[in-house]
């Protein structure tokens, strides 16, 4: 099963990289490769193009890449993207 991640007010960082960047294009995550998922509230502010963006929730996705190697990606959600956070959380919890 694949989960669609839309680009509306969703940001991400990958692996140990603390650089948070805006998702520019929608993409899909294969839930079959997920080995662990963590949902949490957060209060993080970051500046993008001289505008402060406040994140309220995050999802940390641990993904099996290949040959037992795993990586993780963190998705950050603003107040405007709360509905997308809830949709993804519901899809993942239903899968479990």
Could you provide a short overview of the structure?
15% of the residues lie in helices and 57% in strands.
**Most strands sheet:** 5 strands, antiparallel
Task: Kindly report how far apart the N and C termini lie.
Answer: 12 Å
Q: In what order do the strands lie side by side in the largest sheet?
A: 3-2-7-6-5
**C-alpha-based Rg, rounded:** 13 Å
Helical segment tally?
1
Helix content range? 10-25%
What share of residues are in beta strands? over 45%
- Shape estimate: globular
Query: What is CATH's topology name?
Result: PH-domain like
CATH class: Mainly Beta
Number of beta strands: 7
Domain module tally: 1
Output the structural class.
mainly beta
Series of H and E elements:
EEEEEEEH
Please tell me the CATH architecture by its name: Roll
Average pLDDT, rounded to a whole number, is 88
Stretches where pLDDT is under 50 for at least 5 consecutive residues are none
């Amino acid at each position: 099963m694949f989960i669609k991640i839309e680009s509306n007010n969703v940001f991400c960082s990958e692996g140990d990289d603390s650089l948070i960047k805006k998702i520019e294009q929608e993409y899909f995550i294969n839930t079959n490769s997920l080995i662990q998922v963590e949902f949490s509230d957060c209060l993080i502010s970051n500046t993008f193009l001289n505008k402060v963006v406040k994140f309220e929730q995050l999802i940390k996705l641990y993904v099996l890449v290949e040959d037992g190697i795993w990586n993780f990606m963190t998705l950050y959600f603003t107040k405007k993207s709360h509905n997308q956070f809830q949709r993804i959380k519901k899809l993942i919890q239903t899968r479990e």
